[in-house]
Design a protein that fits this description.
homodimer, alpha/beta, Rossmann fold, 7 helices, AB_hydrolase_fold (chains A, B), Alpha/beta hydrolase (chains A, B)
Chain lengths: ~260, ~260
């Protein structure tokens, strides 16, 4: 892992770009005021294209930094500055064609779109995790947030350092992922955009039902694919505070655990 | 409306029992430290039996008082100290028999159980609202929280003083309520216990889908009928803060509205 740039954001967050082999990534760590190193880490999933996703990623990272968490994102295979990936592009084109035709998207397309991505991204993410946890300022525990839900499911099953996951039920779900979901046992916070036209709501509900986790909660909101309301994002943040902040909170926002009910 | 008792709880909340005609009720108002009168009001729905429900009601009321809200609950017809209601008892017995038999509960039983209750409780609640809003210390706006969901739906449709509702999707839903839900337009926060054996999950999802509200969110959690996790209750509290607290929050917990996302 090699840091290639470093800058301090206005709220004190340290933003560093890095490369891990051929994979670009960004690490955000909290400013001195909000951190007591080593800090927990949230891996930020996304749809690919770090530069395009940057505004949303940095907003999530700043929010997490305010809670004392580091955040990191790595580029997806075939996206951004990484080499093109012909098979993935073909699968995306086939998906777009199926959606434009207004019909249901066949399982074969979903499998071809998602499963090779999962098989590539998960080992890359785990390698990034090795490198990130080797930094003295990052100590874990680790959370996974957002991105392609099938990636989150696989990571939750195979990566024991990830203790909690906030997932976005907005992407296509291969049948294999539905089966894999039964093996997930970590706490889950699942966001679902109820009226997302590109989202198969019943598939999302089936996936939520399948998760083996004893603590799982589903948060469905209106507003379309990119219209997650701010309070829903804040609720996801509180989920990570509950599960990743190790010492009992003695200041800040303990409201999530002090209810008498 | 006649107050029959008054006591100050340890957190400064003033608890007053009252009668409205034949109907007993309880009003909780925030202590001087957390209130700037007149305060908003949350009507607390419940399943009937004020004395039996008291521990949960007072916990909800204390929580709301800490946000600067008054809360009130009135006894349900046929429950607690109110006269028995033979038809309702018969419907409850029929429901219990259907549940014990393990079969689906027929629409006829659900209608007989719920619809007469809605027709009685809603005018009583509106009369209580008239009396409560006439008190100088209560100014509105008004929220409705919990209880039998069909009552919440009817109130949301017919009572314009109710600006937001937090509903518990744990009770039986008559077909007429599903139709009525399309007329609801106020913001809704709906709790669903995903693995509640006495709850028809699909009926709850259909009801959530039917609501006409532009802002509606569904929060599904594990833990059975009475196992709503504390963080879910807190999220419901933040929903009311967003919708009932009139002046922009300058202190306290503004986290639900200040996200940059």
């Amino acid at each position: 892992m090699r840091f290639t740039s470093e800058r301090r954001l206005d709220d004190g967050v340290l933003e560093r770009e890095f490369t891990l082999g051929e994979i670009p990534g960004i690490l955000w760590t909290p400013g001195p005021a909000s951190a007591s190193a080593p800090v927990p880490l949230i891996l930020l999933g996304h749809q690919g294209g770090l530069k395009r996703m940057y505004p949303r990623l940095v907003a999530r990272a700043r929010h997490s930094a305010a809670e004392g968490f580091a955040s990191a994102a790595i580029e997806m295979p075939g996206s951004g500055d990484r080499p093109r990936w012909a098979d993935a592009e073909q699968a995306r084109a086939d998906l777009r064609r199926a959606l434009d035709a207004g019909g249901p998207v066949g399982e074969e397309i979903i499998d071809r779109l998602i499963l090779p991505l999962v098989d590539k991204v998960v080992p890359e993410t785990r390698a990034a995790l090795d490198a990130l946890l080797a930094l003295p300022e990052i100590g874990g525990p680790v959370g996974y947030s957002g991105g392609v839900i099938a990636i989150g499911v696989r990571l939750a099953v195979v990566e024991p350092r990830i203790l909690a996951a906030g997932l976005f039920a907005g992407s296509f779900v291969p049948r294999a992922t539905l089966e894999e979901a039964r093996k997930v046992t970590i706490p889950l916070h699942v966001l679902l955009q109820w009226d997302d036209e590109e989202n198969d709501r019943q598939a999302a509900l089936n996936l939520f039902d399948a998760f083996g986790s004893k603590e799982k909660s589903l948060h469905a909101n209106m507003g379309g694919h990119t219209g997650v309301p701010p309070w829903a994002g804040d609720a996801a943040g509180r989920f990570f505070v509950r599960h990743l902040r190790r010492p009992p909170a003695t200041s800040g926002q303990p409201a999530d655990t002090d209810s008498g009910r």
